[in-house]
Design goal:
251 residues, 7 strands
Length: 251
């Protein structure tokens, strides 16, 4: 790619750690200022580390706390970002919650928690992005390769992420005339605490064997696609669900 992101502003939800932090730092290294969203005081310390790394890359960082299960918090996030920087160019819809549990054992509280973050919050983040994004902006939603997998025990996680495909296609059509692209990226199993909290060594071995390279994905495997989708070169890529998983599943 030949372009950079100098002068751009990105809002990244769930940017305190894992992929969110990696995306924030990668875009900052390309000249983008970053709005580092985090969920609660428990993750403030991690979010501050993300902000420090963004600043070390030479970009500005704004920390914003908010419970995205409440649309008012999402509206406040975007308003604060816009008031601070004057414009928003990129939104990475990254915040998420995972649960591995058979359907027979899922409670109503489990259902509400996952759908509130993975589905409801994602929808209202996209809504505010549509309202605030500058022309030629970028919306990148984070899904999951489980959308193409034949597996059990992840029904609430995969089901709550499945709606992103439809939200993506609809919004891409609705605001495409403004040069804004909307895409969903679906990583496979990534070697982070997000995954390890739900798996044991036996199931991790199975997930490694399912990839073409016999390993789990690394955060660094996902970053190049995010950088591309955030760039001007991605202008002809929109409304897509993009699987990046080392051959874990295909569709």
């Amino acid at each position: 790619m030949t372009s950079n992101l100098n002068g751009k502003v990105a809002v990244i939800t769930g940017a305190a750690r894992n992929m969110g932090r990696a995306f924030a730092v990668a875009l900052a290294q390309q000249g983008c200022d970053i709005v580092v969203h985090f969920n609660s005081e428990a993750s403030r310390g991690d979010a501050e580390v993300t902000a420090e790394q963004v600043q070390q890359a030479g970009s500005k960082a704004l920390l914003v706390k908010g419970d995205l299960s409440r649309p008012n918090a999402i509206r406040s996030l975007f308003a604060e970002a816009h008031n601070t920087f004057g414009h928003i160019d990129i939104v990475i819809n990254n915040a998420g919650k995972i649960l591995k549990r058979p359907i027979a054992d899922c409670s109503e509280a489990d259902y509400n928690q996952l759908f509130n973050i993975n589905c409801k919050a994602a929808f209202f983040v996209m809504q505010e992005a549509a309202r605030y994004l500058a022309d030629d902006g970028r919306i990148i939603n984070m899904g999951t390769s489980l959308l193409a997998a034949f597996t059990g025990n992840y029904s609430l996680y995969a089901g709550s992420k499945a709606a992103l495909e439809h939200f993506t296609r609809a919004l891409a059509k609705e605001i495409g005339s403004r040069g804004i692209t909307v895409n969903t990226v679906c990583p496979g199993p990534i070697d982070t605490p997000f995954l390890h909290g739900e798996e044991d060594e036996q199931t991790l071995a199975h997930l490694r064997a399912a990839s073409a390279a016999n390993r789990l994905g690394q955060v660094e495997d996902i970053v190049p696609l995010i950088s591309y989708l955030a760039s001007a070169e991605s202008q002809w890529t929109t409304g897509q669900t993009l699987f990046v998983n080392g051959g874990f599943v295909t569709r």
